[in-house]
Structure prediction request, 247 residues.
Amino acid sequence: MTETTTSPVQPGTFPRTHWSVVLAATGTPSPESAAALEAICRAYWYPLYAYVRRCGQSPHDAQDLTQEFFLLLLKKRWLDEADREKGRLRTFLVTAVKHFMAKEWRRGSAQRRGGAYAHVPIDTDFAESRYAADPGADLAADEVFDRQWALTLLDLTMERLQGEFTAAGRAGDFGVLKESLTASHGTLACQSVAVRLGVSEGAARVAVHRLRKRFREVYRDEIVQTLPVGADVDAEMRHLASALARS
Prediction:
C-alpha cells in the first residue's frame, strides 16, 4: 500500500433522507416524501422499540406495537399534526408513539404479523440482544429513547463512513482507522496504525485526523436530517451528548 491511500474519501455515497422533505409535503403527500418517510421508519425503529420495552411491554408485544405504529404512521395522515417550524423528528416520533400506546393500540387487534408489516421489518432477536446489552438499566423510558436515538445516529454515521471508504476501494483502511474514533489522543498508537496500513507514521496521523474530521461532519449531517429547516443543530447535539452520557 502506498501513502497516497490516505487521501480523503469523497462524500455523497449515501442517499439523504431529510425529515424536512417529509414536513414540507405535509397535507400534500408526494412519492418523494412517502419514500423518505419509509426510509426514516426503517432507520429509526429501534429507539421506539426500546422505549416501548422500557414501558413494560414484552418483546412480542413491543414488536407488534412498534410495527403497527409504523404501519399506521405510513398509511394515515398523522404528519398533519407535525409542527413544520419546531418539529424535531425525535420529538415527533416519541410523542406520536405515546399517543398511540395510550389511545389507539389494542392487544386484540387482528392481523399484527405477516405481509402487513413488510414496510418496516423488525428483527426481534437483534432488538432484544441490543436492549439487553444497554447499560442504562435504571433510565426512564424517555431517557432510554433519547440514548438509543443518539446511538442510532452514531450507527448511521459509521455506515456512511464505511460506505464512503468502500466506494473508494479502501474498506480495509476503514477497518483499521475506525478504531481511532473511540481512542483518546493520549492512547492513540499511530505507529501501530501505520504498520497495519503500510504507510509512514506521519501519513497514519493525517489519515486519523481526516477520519475524525469527516466523522464529525457526517454525524452533524445525520442530526441535521432529523431537524426542520432552521433548527438549532448545536442545541440538538448537546442534548444527544447528554443522553449518551447517561447510564
Summary: Residues 134-247 form one domain. Residues 1-15, 110-118 have pLDDT under 50 and may be disordered. The chain has two domains: 17-129, 134-247. DSSP finds ten helices and no strands in the chain.
